[in-house]
Design brief:
Elements lengths: L3 E2 L5 E2 L1 E2 L11 E2 L12 H13 L28
Antiparallel strand pairs: 1-2, 3-4
Length: about 80
């Protein structure tokens, strides 16, 4: 995940598409990415940031965390939750 921080300290977020499979219509990081085979985390971050936002920026590594998405469940009416 990448968070772009402006010089005035404001963090730039993106609004996920209402048709997104996960967390539709929710606010998200400035950019996020998947690392492809043979690519470093920094290379993947720079690539995706440019693809998703058009921005090239100096990146600072802040840390690592685990991210888990709970599978969507069906209620009795068949509606996805």
């Amino acid at each position: 995940m990448i968070f772009l921080i402006r010089s005035d300290g404001k963090i730039l977020l993106q609004l996920r598409s209402p048709s997104s499979a996960t967390f539709p219509g929710r606010w998200d990081s400035s950019s996020s990415f998947h690392v492809t085979f043979g690519e470093s985390y920094e290379q993947a971050a720079r690539r995706e940031l440019k693809e998703e936002t058009g921005v090239s920026a100096f990146l600072t590594y802040l840390g690592k965390f685990a991210y888990h998405v709970r599978p969507r469940e069906r209620n009795r009416g068949g509606i996805l939750m």
